[in-house]
Design a protein that fits this description.
The structure holds 2 protein chains of 2 kinds. By secondary structure, chain A is an all-alpha fold. Chain A folds into 2 domains: 77 residues; 180 residues, no CATH class. Chain A is built from 11 helices and 2 strands. Chain A has a two-stranded antiparallel ribbon with strand order 1-2. Chain A is globular and about 60 Å long. Chain A starts with 5 loop residues before the first helix and ends with a strand. Chain B has a single domain, classed as Helix Hairpins. Chain B contains 3 helices and no strands. In chain B, helix 1 packs antiparallel against helix 2 and helix 2 packs antiparallel against helix 3. Classes of the chains: A mainly alpha, B mainly alpha. At the A-B interface, helix 1, helix 2, helix 3, helix 4 and helix 5 of A face helix 1, helix 2 and helix 3 of B.
Chain lengths: 314, 113
């Protein structure tokens, strides 16, 4: 057992401090900002745990897009805080604290008393790299060995967007999500929204492409593309599309749809559902990933934009 | 004590803090944030256990890593759905209280303008 370096102890302490701040602070807005800082530092922990793929996802989705989502909600709900909500009684708080401490202590005990024998799937994953032609083990797991999970996760994203859209008031049914943003066309935001997207789109596609062999992939790249799209929307350069648009809906189902077709093809021509023939594995996976990055970017962007608020006619 | 253990204890504490916030905080948005804190602690525990599975030149067991990546995206979409529900409740009822006593007044949708 090596001794933890000062850096790691300080990092863990700061993350813990931010977690306490997020839970205890009075204003929701401060809690949101604390949680964003927490998310970004947790990404650093993931780097220290040698899981750069997860770190990228956590920073892009957990810290970045999740932060925008929470900040937007905190800003819109600011008036709701003025209505006094009664805090739970002392008995509830004490028993909740006791329960939380008990569970945290049990988990900490489990971490401290892990058995010496280690079971790992890493050698199995590395040994089967030949089957796909990709060398990033995480992409292999996501896109081939546990492809079913990834496909179902795309379906979850689709269900979430259906759920969000179904919250539209009758007057805005099938309309544009979120408010129409107006900004000074010569201001800093509009300038950045023109300057950054070309760079961001290149970076997003690069992260998708490099994900075959290095940390990266469709999720991380898709989150970057989504943030570029949102930047243009927030600067008022473009509007959110009406959710009744057929082209939009086609993009939303492209990822899971292609995944399902390839999976059924594996059932028809090959050994099993989602079984890729080794010779075609890399082109098939890349094709699914390209469809998926479009779906992920669009879905993440629309989830952030929220329920339709303006009718499509205007 | 190794670095991995330090992060493991940090993850356990995050789960506890998230659970406490989820139960005691009366505001729904704070409950959503607390739930995300709890989830992030669970993900970190995956990473801590997976770090022990470093083998064959991979620094962290790739299977839990892939699970966590999937989990982060699903947690984000669930959060987005919860926040959309909350904003709609606020729009419809004018408050976000979850208590049974204050039933939302039967408000109608604001006319589209």
């Amino acid at each position: 057992m090596s001794v933890a370096t000062v850096f790691e102890i300080v990092l863990a302490a700061v993350v813990l401090g931010l977690g306490i701040w997020t839970t205890a602070v009075r204003e929701t807005y401060s809690a949101t900002v604390g949680f964003i800082a927490y998310g970004l530092l947790v990404a650093l922990i993931w780097v220290r745990l040698d899981a750069v793929d997860v770190a990228l996802t956590e920073a892009a989705i957990g810290g970045g897009l999740g932060g925008v989502l929470l900040l937007g909600a905190a800003a819109r709900l600011r008036n709701a805080e003025l209505v006094a909500t009664e805090a739970p009684g002392k008995v509830t708080r004490v028993s909740a604290a006791a329960l939380s401490i008990l569970i945290a202590a049990a988990l900490a005990g489990a971490v401290l008393m892990l058995p010496d024998s280690v079971s790992t799937l890493a050698p199995t994953v590395v040994a089967h790299t030949w089957a796909t032609g990709l060398t990033n083990p995480i992409t292999n797991v996501l896109m081939a060995f546990r492809a079913m999970d990834t496909m179902l996760e795309k379906v979850v994203l689709l269900l979430a967007i259906v759920g969000v859209w179904s919250l539209a008031p009758d007057s805005a049914w099938g309309g544009h999500p979120g408010p129409r943003h107006q900004t000074d066309p010569h201001g800093v935001l509009a300038f950045l929204a023109r300057l950054l997207p070309p760079v961001g789109i290149v970076v997003g596609i690069y992260i998708l492409w490099t994900g075959a062999n290095h940390p990266g992939g469709a999720f991380q790249g898709g989150a970057i593309l989504a943030s570029m799209w949102l930047l243009a929307i927030m600067a008022g350069l473009t509007d959110t599309p009406p959710v009744s648009s057929r082209r939009l809906r086609f993009i939303l189902i492209a990822g899971p749809g292609l995944f399902l077709i390839v999976g059924l093809g594996g059932l028809w021509f090959g050994a099993a559902f989602l079984a890729y023939p080794p010779a075609l594995a890399k082109p098939l996976i890349l094709g699914i990933e390209i469809a998926m990055i479009l779906t992920i970017a669009t879905t993440l962007g629309l989830l952030l934009a929220g329920a339709p608020e303006r009718s499509a006619e205007r | 004590m190794s670095a991995v253990t330090v992060f493991g204890l940090c993850a356990a504490a995050a789960v506890g803090l998230g659970l406490y916030g989820l139960i005691t905080n009366p505001q729904p948005l704070r409950k959503i944030i607390a739930f995300n804190l709890l989830g992030s602690g669970v993900f970190l525990l995956f990473g801590v256990i997976g770090r022990r599975g470093a083998a064959a030149g991979v620094g962290n067991d790739p299977v839990p890593q892939a699970l966590v990546i999937t989990g982060v995206v699903v947690a984000f979409s669930a959060t987005a759905l919860a926040i959309a529900l909350l904003l709609r409740l606020f729009q419809k009822a004018g408050s976000t209280t979850l208590s049974n006593g204050a039933l939302p007044s039967a408000g109608s949708d604001p006319p589209s303008g």
